[in-house]
UniProtKB/TrEMBL annotation:
The reaction(s) this protein catalyses: 3-dehydroquinate = 3-dehydroshikimate + H2O
Keywords: Amino-acid biosynthesis, Aromatic amino acid biosynthesis, Lyase
Species the sequence originates in: Amycolatopsis magusensis
Protein name per its UniProtKB record: 3-dehydroquinate dehydratase
Oligomeric and partner information: Homododecamer.
Site-annotated residues for Transition state stabilizer: 17
Pathway: Metabolic intermediate biosynthesis; chorismate biosynthesis; chorismate from D-erythrose 4-phosphate and phosphoenolpyruvate: step 3/7
Gene name of the record: aroQ
Gene Ontology terms, MF aspect: 3-dehydroquinate dehydratase activity
InterPro entries per record: DHquinase_II (IPR001874), DHquinase_II_CS (IPR018509), DHquinase_II_sf (IPR036441)
């Protein structure tokens, strides 16, 4: 089983960007944690990060037949990343959404995540370890009859 772990805008700056909100773990730390979880679950994790919605959309489209499911952190694209969401939806594969923080409560603004209604798994506020938790939950959903 091959699962894609996709990171949206600014997640390349984890560990440097607002540690009070996002913690001190880097994207490399998350990758190592996810890879350890993937090994425990006997699945392969492929990782990709981009600050550009088009690059994320093309990554999904180019690899569609070879991926069984996705763990995505839409980050700043959560409220309006329809092109990326459409690409994920078009795969027919389940996906999990991860947000490191309670993003919907940032700055007291009312935020909507356009990915939420289509997610097989949705996890917000579990910190950087939320990626591995979401991967575990998604793999279990994929393996259930």
């Amino acid at each position: 089983m091959r699962l894609a772990i996709l990171h949206g805008p600014n997640l390349n700056r984890l560990g440097e960007r607002d540690p009070a909100k996002y913690g001190v773990a880097t994207l490399d730390d998350i990758t190592r944690d996810v890879d350890a979880t993937a090994a425990r679950l006997d699945v392969t994790a492929l990782h990709f990060q981009s600050n550009h919605e088009g690059a994320l959309t093309e990554w999904v489209q180019d690899r569609q037949p070879a991926i069984d499911g996705y763990v995505v952190n839409p980050a700043g694209l959560a409220s309006y990343g329809y092109a990326w969401l459409d690409a994920l939806f078009d795969t027919g594969r389940p996906f999990a959404v991860v947000h490191i923080s309670q993003w919907h409560a940032h700055d007291g603004k009312d935020r909507t995540d356009v990915f939420a209604a289509h997610a097989a798994v949705y996890l917000a506020g579990a910190g950087w370890r939320g990626y591995s938790l979401a991967l575990d939950a998604l793999v279990h959903r994929l393996r259930e009859p």
